Amino acid sequence: xxxxxxxxxxxxxxxxxxxxxxxxxxxxxxxxxxxxxxxxxxxxxxxxxxxxxxxxxxxxxxxxxxxxxxxxxxxxxxxxxxxxxxxxxxxxxxxxxxxxxxxxxxxxxx
Length: 110
Prior knowledge:
5 helices
């Protein structure tokens, strides 16, 4: 609900085309991260139990990243700028919150 309350005003005030492109680039970026994660996990932890198998690693993850980046590229530079700004805001919130509420920090201070 908190996320909804934060995002809803943007959806109401921005043109639908911008909101749609922002949603698309965010989803495609998430797919790129998942493809990279599949590849990294296969290399770093080859003996990890997996509930599903990805064929032809690293070919499939690399192709997935290339195709998703190509689709992201087609969305234009202004959308990339919005993505970078939102990522920077998200990182600032994530690290700002984590710095004060980290369980590791609480253990060190105790």
